[in-house]
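Let us work through a complete example step by step.
Step 1: write down the sequence.
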Amino acid sequence: MEQAWIERAKERLTRAFDPAATEAALEQAKNGMESLAQAAAELEATLPLRVGDAIRDGIRGEAAPIARQLAEVRGLQNQVIRRLERLEIELAAERSARVDDLALLVDLVASGWGSIDERLGRIERHLGAAEPAPVLRLEDRQALPSS
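Step 2: predict the structure and record it as tokens.
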């Protein structure tokens, strides 16, 4: 029974397909394959260059904003450095002024103590010329009768 089906299928195929049309289709398929092989060869030759150019253009397009942002960050960094240098100079000037103020204060205090020392010397000389004042000890004072 299988043999009969196979024979019927062969008969239908021979009736359904015209050998000339089949040959024409095969020839057309061969021509299509040749043109496809030629297109593939052209792509194989030019594709690496085109892909490389496309990648380079894509990276350039993506890197341009980053380069601008990097330049902006560098500008801001330089501005911060200039401000820090200015602050450092102002701080050094302020420190120098505080040291000068402290030196003046030390001079004033030393001068004040010198003047106090002179006064005390005069008072001691003045008292030295007079009778010395009696010095009582605490033990002696307790022994004295209370008045």
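Step 3: interpret the result. The chain has three helices and no strands.
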